[in-house]
């Protein structure tokens, strides 16, 4: 932190000379820090206890971080470093990790910090917090990646990959696997660049064969680094995506399918919506049967009913020959529009307006009633209030018309939303609004006595 702490080394002003002050080991003067430390005293009595001081200092650092006062946090850190001399062995052992986490956060955001500063700090912390070497190395590499320093990040990961301390523990093994996997991601990045270069070469060209061989070498190294990690239960989205892309590129579709199936369905892995998205997209590329695609999206629907793929799920269900799928298609549309983030999704409203009408025409009133019964107490105010009618008509008239049709079918002509929109005079939408009124009059579930 020395690179950006020069501004802290300043002469004490006349106003500060009379005040008690705290000095760091480097001679930096913090006249205001003494006041803060004194504030922890009870009854005005100054606490000089070492533990009280470091505890107070930690609180001040946390407060400064929350307020994004990076300079002040850096000054507190100078005083907090004395925790490394704590007589309590437990505190002394845990101190390096605390210092690393706080210090790296400060250096990441401090306006006068630099990559060189961060590198110096990280190297020192690896020596002090030897048991945290792998964690620090990984975060150090990610910091370098953020700054586009891929070669430096790869060097840090390579060093950490072979590092060992004491007896190998299971947590240490997972960290090593994670480090190797991030190294694999870097190799995947190089492989992707070579893949792009290869696509621009003529297959009959000698350079094509050379580039192809280089890609194969990179893919083998990457596969080794990624494969071990994704077999361990966890959420490994970027690693799985990269590995599957490489398997597909080399024609190993069975291998790719196995990886994705395990990632999505293995009970040892945590529930992960993306796992089902990756599997669905893969099966779609393979032109898998509709039933298979529906089975994958059905699980995704149970996890995230508002996922953007649910509209695609509805289309698949609609095309199915099974009546149970048609019923589920209606449920999916209602499920999407239950969420506040989807209230202005015009495609969802169009689908629901059209499908509601088709369902009622097909004599499936019970389906509509089943979905509406659990929503009629809150959907009117959530979707179909007078406020939303005015707001939607002002912002998106087409959306307002689709919603008005749904409102009319579910609540009848007396619905505030339907009445407001149907009274508006708009030449372009005149025909649509006429059809809307006709549909509501004929098919509204209110008219059906439900």
UniProtKB/TrEMBL annotation:
Region (Disordered): 1-24
InterPro entries reported for this sequence: SL1/TIF-IB_Component, TAF1A
Signal peptide interval: none
Annotated Pfam families: TAF1_subA
Cellular compartments per GO CC: RNA polymerase I transcription regulator complex
GO annotation (BP), single: transcription by RNA polymerase I
Name of the protein this chain belongs to: TATA box-binding protein-associated factor RNA polymerase I subunit A isoform X3
Native source organism of the sequence: Odocoileus virginianus (White-tailed deer)
Organism ancestry: Eukaryota, Metazoa, Chordata, Craniata, Vertebrata
């Amino acid at each position: 932190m020395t690179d950006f702490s020069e501004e802290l080394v300043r002469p004490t002003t006349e106003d500060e000379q009379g005040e008690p002050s705290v000095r760091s080991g480097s001679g930096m003067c913090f006249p205001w820090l003494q006041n803060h430390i004194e504030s922890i005293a009870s009854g005005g009595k100054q606490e000089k206890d070492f533990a009280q001081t470091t505890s107070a200092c930690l609180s001040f650092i946390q407060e400064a971080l929350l307020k994004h006062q990076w300079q002040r946090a850096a000054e507190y850190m100078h005083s907090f470093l004395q925790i490394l001399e704590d007589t309590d062995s437990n505190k002394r052992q845990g101190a390096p990790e605390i210092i690393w986490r706080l210090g790296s956060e400060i250096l990441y955001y401090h306006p006068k910090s630099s990559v060189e500063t961060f590198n110096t700090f990280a190297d020192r912390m690896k020596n002090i917090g030897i048991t945290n070497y792998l964690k620090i190395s990984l975060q150090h590499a990610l910091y370098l990646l953020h700054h586009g320093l891929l070669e430096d990040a790869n060097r840090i990961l390579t060093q950490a990959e072979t590092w060992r301390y004491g007896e190998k523990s299971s947590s240490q093994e997972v960290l090593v696997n994670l480090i190797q996997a991030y190294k694999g991601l870097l190799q995947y990045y190089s492989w992707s660049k070579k893949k792009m270069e290869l696509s621009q070469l003529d297959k009959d060209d000698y350079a094509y064969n050379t580039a192809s061989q280089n890609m194969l070498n990179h893919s083998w190294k990457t596969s080794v680094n990624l494969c071990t990690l994704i077999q361990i239960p966890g959420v490994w989205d970027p690693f799985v995506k990269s590995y599957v892309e490489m398997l597909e590129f080399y024609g190993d579709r069975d291998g790719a399918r196995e990886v994705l199936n395990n990632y999505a369905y293995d009970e040892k892995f945590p529930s992960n919506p993306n796992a089902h998205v990756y599997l669905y997209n893969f099966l779609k590329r393979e032109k898998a049967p509709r039933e298979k695609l529906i089975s994958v999206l059905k699980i995704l629907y149970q996890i995230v009913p508002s996922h953007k793929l649910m509209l695609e799920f509805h289309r698949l269900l609609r095309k199915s020959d099974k009546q149970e799928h048609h019923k589920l298609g209606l449920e999916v549309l209602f499920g999407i529009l239950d969420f506040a983030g989807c209230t202005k999704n015009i495609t969802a409203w169009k689908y629901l307006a059209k499908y509601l009408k088709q369902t009622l025409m097909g004599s499936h009133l019970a389906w509509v009633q089943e979905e509406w019964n659990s929503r009629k107490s809150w959907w009117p105010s959530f979707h179909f209030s007078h406020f939303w009618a005015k707001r939607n008509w002002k912002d998106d008239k087409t959306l307002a018309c689709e919603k008005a049709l749904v409102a009319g079918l579910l609540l009848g002509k007396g619905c505030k939303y339907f009445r407001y929109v149907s009274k508006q005079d708009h030449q372009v939408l005149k025909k649509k609004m006429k059809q809307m009124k006709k549909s509501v009059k004929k098919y509204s579930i209110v008219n059906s006595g439900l």
